[in-house]
Specification:
Blueprint (H helix, E strand, L loop, with lengths): L4 H15 L17 E3 L7 E7 L18 E4 L3 E5 L1 E4 L3 E3 L1 H4 L4 H27 L10 E2 L8 H14 L7 E5 L1 H9 L1 H4 L3 E3 L4 E2 L2 E2 L2 E5 L5 E2 L17 E2 L1 E5 L3 E13 L10 E13 L5 E4 L1
Parallel strand pairs: 7-18, 8-12
Antiparallel strand pairs: 1-2, 2-4, 3-4, 5-17, 6-17, 8-15, 9-10, 11-12, 13-14, 15-18, 16-17
Helix pairs in contact: 1-3
Length: about 300
């Protein structure tokens, strides 16, 4: 086994966690230019935090009782202290034969599950946090039922609400849930000119001024119009949500990635290496405006 095995694998996983494109709807959104502060390194309460000027980050947006854990820790008159979400994987066991050589192909095969699960969880948390909790003038939630159950009419209504709130036209994105995306695909008569490739189901980049994306992990709302709590199981009466946002209003930050490794030499009974990862990330609205949803 190469002496640098842990370092090589850790570097590869960090690279893939930051470059694997699992959420294209976050592409182009710049990382916040602020240092990561590690608190309680190695302890159960270990965390990554960042400090931001209050004028650039309004704390009340994070006080969302349907998204847990709450990202905001504390704030003063001059700055907000934001705690990044922590993602940890269960331990993977690897024999010495499996890790000899430490080639990228072998590394990727052994760590793919960790990367996929961390990215899946963090992006689902991000879209949930970006989605508004309820309908307000600054955070419109448009009901399909109020628009003849017609998705295009609902998108136009959302555009009108964004216009009324004076949200800039450039940088508006709409992340369609699977159910809403499929409605566009089957509406061939009206949307034939918006489909780039009917066979693959690719939708044209813009509809009613929104850049269109699809994501399988969007949140749900109750029939009464309240966003369901993070990671809750949808009820049959719950409504899937498509989430809209203005890109300049999204605060995104990738924190530290740690690898935990125990060599087989320390486990004579089983003679296996043990490996898992801890990763920090957050993406939330910077202000309680410029976000919306269709349900």
């Amino acid at each position: 086994m190469p002496l640098n095995f842990p370092e090589v694998w850790s570097a590869r996983v960090i690279a893939l966690l930051t470059t694997t494109n699992s959420a294209p709807w976050l592409d182009g959104i710049q990382e916040l230019e602020t240092d990561i502060i590690e608190v309680g390194s190695g302890a159960a309460s270990e965390s990554n935090i960042i400090h931001l000027p209050v004028e650039n980050f309004r704390p009340e947006v994070l006080m969302n009782n349907t998204t847990y854990p709450i990202a905001l820790q504390a704030f003063t008159d001059t700055e907000a202290t934001i705690q990044l979400d922590k993602y940890q994987t269960k331990v993977t066991t690897l024999s010495d034969d499996q890790i000899i050589g430490a080639s990228y192909r072998r590394i990727d095969a052994a760590t793919r599950g960790h990367i996929v699960q961390i990215n899946s969880k963090k992006y689902k948390k991000a879209i949930h946090a970006i989605c508004p909790s309820a309908n307000t003038a600054a955070t419109p939630v448009i009901k399909m039922a109020d628009n003849g159950d017609d998705l295009y009419n609902a998108i136009v209504a959302l555009k009108a609400a964004f216009d009324l709130a004076e949200i800039p036209v450039e940088g508006r994105r709409l992340v369609l849930c699977s159910e809403h995306y499929n409605k566009l695909l089957i509406d061939r008569e009206r949307f034939a000119n918006l489909l780039l490739n009917m066979n693959s189901g690719s939708v044209a980049p813009q509809i009613a001024g929104f850049e269109i994306y699809q994501y399988m992990g969007n949140p749900h709302f109750t029939a009464a119009g309240a966003k369901k709590a993070w990671d809750s199981i949808p009820e049959p009466t719950d409504l899937p949500a498509s989430v809209a946002f203005y890109t300049e209003n999204i605060a995104k930050k990738t924190g530290m990635t740690k690898q935990y490794f125990a060599p087989a030499s320390n486990d004579p009974e089983n003679q296996t290496n043990k490996l898992n990862y801890r990763h920090y990330f957050i993406a939330v609205p910077a202000k309680l405006e410029g976000i919306g949803a269709i349900i």
